[in-house]
Design brief:
heterodimer; A: mainly alpha; ABC transporter involved in vitamin B12 uptake, BtuC; B: mainly alpha; 14 helices; globular
Chain lengths: 307, 356
């Protein structure tokens, strides 16, 4: 097969992985009823702290762990204001997004343009990696990609088929009824928001440690917002996140593919953002469909004693 | 022994309490910003001192603070209106840029005498900002597109479009290859108070806007409808308030005044269109906090806009003296917003702590 096609698909997977990780995180938070608009900040904080930790310890795995912890700490802020203080989730999410991008820019400044010596090694899956074409694209990849795939499948199963999943869904659909059943609404929501933030952090770590192998201010480039849009596009279902994330991964790569055609770069850089709008408009055409899948209590703080 | 914390709703809040709470929230927010500075290896006391000395501590600094307050008051007042209707416009940055580009085109291409040309630039800038804003209302009303996402995406798109214009078709022939448009003729430039960069005309427009939007919100039928829409969407539907209609007007006003802010920046400060990040140093985002600090009261945005202009000017000062990146201001924005909304919690509730 054409080597260009192979390398484009290879980059598509790499560009889609952070989107997939963060989208799964946002799906989890939103299924429990918490809208987290702070994803852009969490990805940025994850990207920079992952890079710093990997650089200083020489171990990229510690980088991934640091990224998840830092982003989860930011998610804890959002969970605190949104779930405990019950303030408006849109405003809280915006505040966290700004804070995260600000902190990332501030602490990351000395690391701009620093090369990363220790990278996450690609793992060749035995046998499968030898399949022509597909082997290179899907089975000779960084560990976070495999993890994101397993996680997507696992999350789909857990949400749909287990007691744990039912609890999460009940808290997002009808928290009052869930509370009557003995589910601790706030605790479930806080944990889901934290886990979602940690996944955004891992997505950020993928950006700085695998995708670009460096840190730059604005590295996330709106991906955190695209993730929020993708969550709507997926109708809050983890399996559809694969489609959305790798579709947008492809759009990010498409910019570079089309560059030799002489199209101005600025028009090409617009692609992911225009595509996001398009996807949301298309989703809006079948609004009943969306209404059916949207968690009924999404964005609604739960007040005990109210019905 | 057990400690029990109970949250109870508060009945009626005296004025001194809500003012005190606001000040306490700001103080706590600034303290938290200090913690972030310390974590980044910057002495927080020195940084905060530098910021306020840089903005309010000298006549020059004060002039710069007023200059930067102009766009913040304009945009903040428009956002206060939008947020009252629970329409989360975070696209003021794009709307400002739309206004700046329209004004640039008019300023460079229409041969009119000075007052007429300036008027045409302001009208054109308002309309461009309003159109860019209405798009968001249309997408939401017609297709149910989340306005936070669409307005941010339109920001990114505006950034790219302007960069395309200034490096392509609009690139100035007299700018020695720099990515700017040609400079405006004197007829297209705004008068500045000598010795400062304060463009008096836009400042007056900003003050009038803040007052006019306050009256619009409190005294007009439209203001009533938008407040009902914000406080109780169900009731708004039953009362026959049309969401698309109200939000389109809302976004035309909120986007339009952001466009006017853009006109002021190009006609008074830059005299040409250049890179989006130099035309607006994040005014569209900072204005979000300006609106919240003013408790979504457009008139109060005059005060909160002035305060945040100080932080922007001081932020510039410490960026230079301490070598901090431009993102530093975002730390202020995010942290103060977080503490402001957390403070609102204590406005509505009180904590009762019992030890048993």
């Amino acid at each position: 097969m054409n080597p260009l096609v192979v390398s484009v698909l290879d980059r598509t997977i790499a560009a889609g992985t952070p989107l997939l990780l963060a989208t799964l995180g946002e799906i989890l938070a939103e299924r429990s009823g918490v809208q987290n608009l702070g994803m852009e900040g969490m990805m940025a904080v994850g990207a920079v702290s992952g890079f710093m930790a990997a650089l200083h310890t020489g171990n990229p795995w510690i980088g991934v762990a640091a990224a998840m912890a830092a982003a989860a700490a930011l998610a804890l802020l959002h969970a605190f204001t949104a779930v405990i203080l019950k303030v408006n989730q849109v405003v809280s999410g915006l505040a966290v997004a700004m804070l995260g991008t600000g902190i990332a820019g501030l602490i990351g400044k000395p690391y701009m343009g620093v090369p990363l010596p220790n990278q996450l090694p690609a793992l060749r899956t035995p046998l499968l990696a030898d399949i022509p074409v597909l082997g290179d694209i899907l089975f000779d990849k960084d560990p976070l990609f495999y993890f994101s795939v397993v996680l997507g499948l696992a999350l789909a199963f857990l949400l749909a088929r287990t007691r744990w999943g039912m609890r999460v869904r009940s808290v997002g659909e009808n928290p009052a009824a869930a509370a009557v059943q003995g589910v601790r609404v706030s605790r479930v929501r806080i944990l889901c928001t934290l886990a979602g933030g940690a996944l955004a952090g891992m997505g950020g770590a993928h950006l700085s440690l695998v995708y670009s192998k460096s840190w730059a201010e604005g590295l996330t480039g709106g991906r955190g917002w695209i993730v929020v849009a993708l969550t709507i596009f997926t109708l809050w279902r983890p399996l559809r996140a694969f489609l959305g994330a790798f579709l947008f991964g492809g759009i990010f790569v498409l910019q570079y593919v089309l560059q030799p055609l002489g199209i101005p770069t600025n028009l090409l850089s617009m692609l992911p953002y225009a595509a996001t709008l398009l996807v949301l408009v298309l989703g809006g055409l079948s609004r009943e469909n969306r209404g059916r899948h949207e968690p009924a209590a999404l964005g609604e703080p739960y007040m005990r004693g109210e019905r | 022994m057990r400690i029990e914390v109970q949250v109870l709703p508060r009945q009626g809040t005296p004025r001194f309490f809500s003012t005190g709470l606001l000040l306490a929230s700001i103080a706590a927010g600034l303290a938290a910003v200090g913690v972030v500075f310390a974590m980044a290896g910057v002495n927080p006391f020195y940084a905060l001192y530098k910021i306020f000395a840089g903005s309010f501590g000298s006549l020059y600094g004060l002039g710069e603070t007023v200059t930067k307050a102009i766009p913040l008051i304009l945009i903040g007042a428009g956002l206060a209106l939008a947020y009252r209707g629970r329409f989360w416009n975070v696209g003021a940055e794009g709307q400002l840029l739309a206004g700046a580009s329209a004004a640039t085109w008019i300023g460079l291409n229409l041969a009119l005498p000075h007052p007429l040309l300036i008027a045409a630039m302001f009208v054109g800038g308002f309309l461009a900002g309003a159109a860019w804003g209405c798009l968001i209302a249309l997408l939401k009303g017609r297709f149910g597109v989340n306005e936070v996402i669409s307005s941010l995406m339109l920001n990114y798109i505006a950034y790219e479009l302007i960069t395309l214009l200034i490096t392509g078709p609009w690139k100035g022939k007299t700018q020695h290859g720099f990515p700017y448009t040609d400079d405006f003729a004197p007829a297209a430039q705004l008068w500045l108070i000598p010795g400062t960069r304060i463009h008096l005309l836009t400042l007056v427009l900003a003050l009038l806007t803040a007052f006019a939007l306050f009256v619009l919100m409190r005294r007009s039928r439209f203001g009533y409808e938008l407040r009902v829409m914000g406080e109780n969407p169900e009731a708004a539907r039953y009362a026959g308030i049309r969401f698309l209609g109200v939000s389109a007007v809302l976004m035309a006003v909120s986007g339009g005044v952001a466009g006017v802010a853009g006109v002021g920046e190009v006609a008074a400060i830059h005299h040409h269109l250049s890179a989006p990040t130099s035309i607006s140093s994040g005014y569209g985002f900072t204005a979000i906090i300006v609106a919240w600090l003013a408790k979504l009261n457009p008139a109060a945005c005059v005060a909160s806009g002035f305060f945040f202009a100080g932080i922007l000017v001081g932020g510039d000062a410490i960026q230079v003296s301490l070598g901090l990146p431009a993102a530093t201001v975002q730390v202020f924005n995010g942290m103060l917003l977080l503490f402001l909304i957390a403070g609102n919690f204590f406005l509505a509730n009180r904590l009762v702590v019992r030890v048993r």
